[in-house]
């Protein structure tokens, strides 16, 4: 075990834990943002530099500070390590710079992007960025590409986190897409016309932090905050598929199916393409109840979780919620 | 060598196959992918100065890796031409030290003399112009690389003319070491 | 005339063959090391020599060697970094072309010291013709029993292979080089783990520059102490300087560290002064990534002392008034040179060569180039100049590998020392692009 101090808070974690995961154990707004790191996928992390933190003391044995900021997602803790994140102005300044770098070639087409409302880059920019841009040059653009019947690649929005590449490597039988080219001309692609139709390939949509890989069956159907996420499961015949999903309802219609994500947007249980793309009827699923989405998310703003709480116990229920509750009586759970 | 077409699956010559077998011995058996860059060089030399998707698939098959692993690499390194090229690719260094000794003028001169702009191939199919970054020969700048040869100190019209004349008279590309060892080859 | 430890016989006809090289004292270090020294004793001599990595970072070679992990039963590797591509640097190409056996000898002696039985020379792909030269020389060494099984009856085995890159400056970064040697994209790895622990094929690996490995030969032949007698302070031995740009005699010079910069530029023994009878304007002393210095500051330190060709003297004054010896790529610019255009060219280089893995470098290098392109072509604003400094600062220190710094430093230094020239480009947009325009405008004012 190693005891570290993170933003003044002491915590003990097993040896080999990364600084980021130690911070996540503490939780709250001291947790560094992560745009490329993804716990369940090996090899991710260290690229976007969003999670850089200051190590003010390396360890109890060697308390010297580390000369440069370190990526908290791949740097492991040492006993006696002292880490500064929100308590260090230079860390926050650098992070502001990272937001700026990630946005200079991002199209800012949130109003027409399916990812808006559940976009890591949007959240990152909102929390750590500035409202203006100093970038006057032309932005990099790419044509949209359909890679197979289910997934659309909108490379212009990509921040080259490499998550989808590692995901395809680790989840599918035969990876057909990768990072091509280099520098700011690097792109996610299949090189030749090729379709990503491996089973489990749909998971690249869930791991994508932005709207670069989107679900074609859900394209332009609704804004995400107008839908209501409901946990559900089915007995999927595929042994590698968990069958545990979130159904995104608008009225009685299931508009899309995704894997379940934790509060850091990470999928712990993968789902197969059949569950994701072909089971869009309530009858296909056993419903469990509303999926909890982090309260700060725009998705939770439509109070979809209220139907399962008893409104009487909440003293100051907003008027909109009362109305919402009257118009949309609680979902009938179970099959 | 003729460039490949989509209908005919490309094959390495016997000489190239022997060279590839030699290369595989340089790396641990479970690390054959290490031979990817040297094999791409061989492929480019064998198949008309560029590596088509079919040629890259052949490279993947030869090593036993996924085609995407080859595409990722071939598109990362600038020496591999992913589109058809002319008989001679003139790689003109444009970086600072060459710029100080007149690489801008050299590029303009080559564009005039060949009729091709940077990134294009001359109408006679002889020359493709390509700008590259530092070739590590700054002391004899400005320079042009053509295949395995460096043409240095191209700061006079005479030197440039001499280079182009030499290349114009070169009907076939020079044989590479592994092609010279008695194995039958189309260009012998 | 300084001593030449590496290049004494470089112009001897046939020195690229085993016989002639051997006749001039070649392969003595292999015999001495394998027959009379333990591997640790070789490492000790290299430590004593004070040799610092000749690729650019200047890290003590002996110390790097002593960091190599030696777990039981795991093969170790020595990899020679012959991916020379830092603009202004062209010494290794010359060394390998003319003295292939010197590098091979250094590889054998160094591999023995490190306990490596398979070693690689990673050479940049553009130098395929040099790869052929090295492979021919390696074949000779095998034939003469200096490579292969049981070298010189010592029981030590070594296989040596040459591996070409494919055109990517970033592969000069040691972990990108190892990725490339594994047949992958040249994406630098996050560190730790360092190559000394997990390098090639996740095995302990030392990566050294060509010149560093060549220097091991005289160090073992004459002893580390003897080597350390040359030079000044912590800058020991000789160094190959590749001199280019507006010099009368550009080329490669082996100098004893400590030669005054002024002597190096102007004496006939070295560069013979500035071409066309012109005045010197600025120098980039250690490859394009190190800070540019104006004439006054490259000849003398801010304190007025003579600037010497040593690691310490060139970095005197930090980045405010100093620079770095780096790789020894010495680029001189005459008075007509446009600093903005030159900075743009360097920026374009780093933009082109960024691997694109981490966001500050991928996006920042492109941003710098675009702003500099606008300034150079008469479309700049005054606020662009501070923007350049700010973007450079946002990249520096926040990237996976040192390419970020390499891209940021030249821009920041150019603005630091030549801000007036950037401002002139903003206020004189119509003339900005014309070569030498700033020089003639300045001359007209005098």
Relevant terms:
heterotrimer, B: 188 residues, alpha+beta, Arc Repressor Mutant, subunit A, Glutaredoxin, 2 domains, 7 helices, 4 strands, 37% helix, 10% strand, disordered C terminus, C: 446 residues, alpha/beta, Rossmann fold, Ubiquitin-like (UB roll), de novo design (two linked rop proteins), 3 domains, 5-stranded mixed β-sheet, 11 strands, 44% helix, NAD (chain C), iron-sulfur (chain C)
The neighbouring-strand order within the major sheet of chain C is 8-7-11-9-10
Q: Which fold name is given in CATH as the topology of the largest domain in chain C?
A: Rossmann fold
Quaternary structure of the protein: heterotrimer
Q: Major sheet of chain C, described briefly? A: 5 strands, mixed
Number of domains of chain C: 3
What distance lies between the first and last C-alpha atoms of chain B, to the nearest angstrom?
12 Å
SSE succession of chain C: HHHHEHHEHEHEHHEEEEHEEHHHEHHHHH
* CATH architectural label of the largest domain in chain C: 3-Layer(aba) Sandwich
Portion of residues in beta strands of chain B equals 5-15%
CATH topology of the largest domain in chain B: Glutaredoxin
- Please estimate the helix content of chain C: 40-55%
CATH class wording of the largest domain in chain C: Alpha Beta
Number of domains of chain B: 2
Protein name (chain B): NAD(P)H-dependent oxidoreductase subunit E
Family (chain B): Belongs to the complex I 24 kDa subunit family.
Organism (chain B): Hymenobacter jeollabukensis
Pfam family, one (chain B): 2Fe-2S_thioredx
Any overview of this molecule?
The complex is a heterotrimer of chains A (335), B (188) and C (446). Chain A is of the alpha+beta class and 335 residues long. Chain A has helices at residues 19-26, 89-104, 120-128, 163-171, 203-207, 273-278, 319-327, and strands spanning 2-6, 9-13, 52-57, 70-71, 82-84, 145-147, 151-153, 178-180, 187-189, 213-215, 228-233, 244-250, 253-259, 286-290. Chain A folds into three domains: 2-99, Ubiquitin-like (UB roll) (Roll); 105-218, Alpha-Beta Plaits; 224-327, no CATH class. Chain A has seven helices and 14 strands. In chain A, the strands form four sheets. Chain A has a five-stranded mixed β-sheet, sandwiched between helices. In chain A, strands 13-12-11-14 form a four-stranded antiparallel β-sheet. In chain A, strand 12 and strand 13 (253-259) form a beta hairpin. The radius of gyration of chain A is 21 Å and the shape is globular. Residues 307-314 and 331-335 of chain A have low confidence and may be disordered. Chain B is α+β, with helices and mostly antiparallel strands. Chain B folds into two domains: 14-74, Arc Repressor Mutant, subunit A (Orthogonal Bundle); 88-168, Glutaredoxin (3-Layer(aba) Sandwich), CATH 3.40.30.10. Chain B has helices at residues 14-24, 36-46, 53-63, 67-74, 96-100, 103-114, 157-168, and strands at 88-93, 127-132, 144-146, 149-151. Chain B has a four-stranded mixed β-sheet, with helices on one face. With 446 residues, chain C is of the alpha/beta class. Chain C contains 19 helices and eleven strands. Chain C has a five-stranded mixed β-sheet. In chain C, strands 3-2-1-4 form a four-stranded parallel β-sheet, with helices on both faces. A two-stranded antiparallel ribbon of chain C has the order 5-6. The radius of gyration of chain C is 22 Å and the shape is globular. Chains in contact: A-B, A-C, B-C. At the A-B interface, strand 8 of A face helix 4 of B. Chain B: Keywords: 2Fe-2S, Iron, Iron-sulfur, Metal-binding. Chain B: Its cofactor is [2Fe-2S] cluster. Chain B: Pfam families: 2Fe-2S_thioredx (PF01257). Chain B: GO terms for molecular function: 2 iron, 2 sulfur cluster binding; metal ion binding; NADH dehydrogenase activity. Chain B: This is NAD(P)H-dependent oxidoreductase subunit E.
């Amino acid at each position: 075990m190693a005891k570290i101090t993170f933003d003044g808070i002491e915590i003990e974690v097993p040896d080999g834990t990364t600084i980021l995961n130690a911070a996540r154990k503490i939780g709250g707004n001291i947790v560094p943002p992560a745009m490329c790191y993804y716990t369940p996928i090996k090899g991710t992390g260290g690229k976007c530099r969003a999670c850089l933190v200051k190590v003010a003391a390396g360890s109890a044995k060697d308390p010297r500070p580390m000369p440069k900021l370190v990526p908290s997602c791949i740097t492991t803790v040492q006993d006696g390590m002292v880490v500064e994140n929100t308590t260090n102005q230079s860390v926050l300044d650098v992070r502001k710079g990272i937001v700026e770098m990630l946005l200079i070639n991002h199209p800012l087409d949130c109003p027409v992007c399916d990812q808006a409302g559940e976009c890591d880059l949007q959240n990152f920019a909102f929390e750590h960025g500035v409202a203006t841009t100093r970038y006057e040059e032309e932005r990099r653009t790419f044509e949209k590409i359909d890679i197979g019947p289910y997934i659309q690649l909108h490379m212009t929005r990509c921040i080259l986190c490499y998550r989808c590449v590692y995901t395809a490597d680790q989840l599918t039988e035969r990876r057909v897409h990768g990072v091509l080219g280099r520098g700011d001309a690097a792109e996610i692609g299949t090189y030749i016309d090729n379709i990503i139709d491996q089973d489990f390939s749909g998971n690249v949509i869930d791991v994508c932090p932005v709207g670069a890989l989107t679900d074609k069956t859900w394209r332009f159907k609704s804004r995400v905050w107008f839908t209501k996420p409901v946990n559900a499961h089915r007995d999927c015949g595929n042994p590698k598929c968990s069958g545990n999903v979130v159904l995104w309802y608008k009225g009685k219609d299931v508009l899309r199916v995704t894997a379940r994500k934790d509060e850091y947007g990470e999928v712990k249980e993968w789902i197969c393409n059949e569950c994701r793309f072909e089971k869009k009827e309530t009858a296909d699923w056993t419903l469990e109840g509303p999926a909890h989405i982090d309260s700060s998310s725009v998705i939770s703003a439509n109070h979809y979780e209220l139907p399962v709480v008893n409104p009487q116990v909440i003293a100051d229920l907003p008027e909109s919620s009362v109305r919402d509750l009257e118009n949309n009586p609680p979902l009938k759970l179970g099959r | 060598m003729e460039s490949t077409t989509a209908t005919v699956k490309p094959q390495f010559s016997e000489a190239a196959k022997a060279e590839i077998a030699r290369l595989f011995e340089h790396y641990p058996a479970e690390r054959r992918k290490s031979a990817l860059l040297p094999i791409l060089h061989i492929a480019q030399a064998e198949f008309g100065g560029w590596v088509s998707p079919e040629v890259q698939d052949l490279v993947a098959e030869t090593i036993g890796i996924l085609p995407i692993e080859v595409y990722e690499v071939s598109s990362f390194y600038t020496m591999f031409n992913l589109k058809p090229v002319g008989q001679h690719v003139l790689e003109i260094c444009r970086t600072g030290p060459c710029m100080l000794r007149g690489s801008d003028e050299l590029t303009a001169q080559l564009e005039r003399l060949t009729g091709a702009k940077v990134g294009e191939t001359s109408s006679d199919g002889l020359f493709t112009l390509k700008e590259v970054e530092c070739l590590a020969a700054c002391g004899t700048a400005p320079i042009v690389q053509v295949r395995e040869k460096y043409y240095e100190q191209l700061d006079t019209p005479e030197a440039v003319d001499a280079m182009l004349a030499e290349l114009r008279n070169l009907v076939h590309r020079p044989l590479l070491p592994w092609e010279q060892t008695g194995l039958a080859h189309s260009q012998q | 005339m300084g001593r030449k430890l590496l290049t004494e016989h470089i112009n001897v006809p046939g020195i690229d063959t085993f016989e002639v090289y051997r006749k001039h004292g070649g392969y003595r270090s292999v015999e001495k090391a394998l027959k009379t020294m333990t591997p640790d004793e070789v490492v000790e001599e290299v430590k004593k020599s004070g040799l610092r990595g000749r690729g650019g970072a200047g890290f003590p070679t002996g110390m790097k060697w002593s960091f190599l992990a030696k777990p039981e039963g795991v093969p170790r590797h020595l990899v020679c970094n012959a991916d020379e591509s830092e603009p202004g640097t062209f010494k290794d190409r010359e060394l390998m072309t003319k003295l292939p056996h010197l590098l091979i000898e250094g590889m054998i002696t160094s591999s023995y010291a490190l306990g490596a039985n398979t070693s690689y020379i990673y050479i940049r792909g553009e130098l395929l013709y040099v790869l052929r030269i090295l492979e021919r020389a390696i074949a000779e060494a095998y034939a003469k029993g200096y490579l292969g099984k049981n070298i010189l009856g010592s029981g030590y085995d070594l296989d040596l292979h040459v591996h070409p890159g494919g055109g990517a400056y970033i592969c000069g970064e040691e972990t990108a080089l190892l990725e490339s040697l594994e047949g992958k994209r040249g994406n630098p790895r996050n560190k730790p783990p360092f190559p000394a622990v997990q390098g090639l094929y996740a095995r302990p690996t030392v990566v050294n520059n060509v010149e560093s490995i060549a220097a091991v030969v005289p160090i073992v032949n004459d002893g580390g102490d003897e080597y350390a007698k040359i030079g000044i302070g912590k800058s020991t031995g000789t160094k190959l300087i590749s001199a280019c740009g507006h010099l009368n005699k550009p080329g490669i010079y082996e100098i004893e560290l400590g030669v005054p910069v002024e002597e190096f530029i102007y004496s006939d023994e070295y560069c013979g002064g500035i071409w066309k009878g012109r005045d010197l304007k600025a120098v980039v002393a250690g490859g394009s990534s190190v800070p540019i210095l104006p004439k006054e500051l490259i000849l003398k330190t801010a304190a007025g002392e003579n600037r010497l060709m040593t690691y310490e003297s060139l970095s005197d004054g930090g980045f405010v008034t100093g620079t770095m010896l780096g790789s020894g790529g010495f680029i001189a610019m005459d008075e007509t040179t446009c600093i903005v255009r030159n900075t743009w060219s360097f920026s374009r280089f780093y933009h082109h060569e960024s691997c694109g893995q981490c966001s500050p470098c991928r996006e920042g290098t492109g941003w710098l180039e675009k702003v500099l392109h606008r300034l150079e072509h008469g479309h700049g604003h005054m606020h662009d100049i501070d923007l350049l400094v700010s973007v450079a600062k946002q990249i520096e220190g926040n990237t996976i590998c040192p390419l970020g710094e390499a891209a940021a430093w030249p821009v920041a230094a150019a603005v630091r020392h030549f801000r007036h020239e950037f401002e002139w480009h903003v206020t004189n947009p119509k003339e900005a692009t014309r070569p030498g325009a700033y020089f003639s405008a300045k001359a007209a004012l005098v």
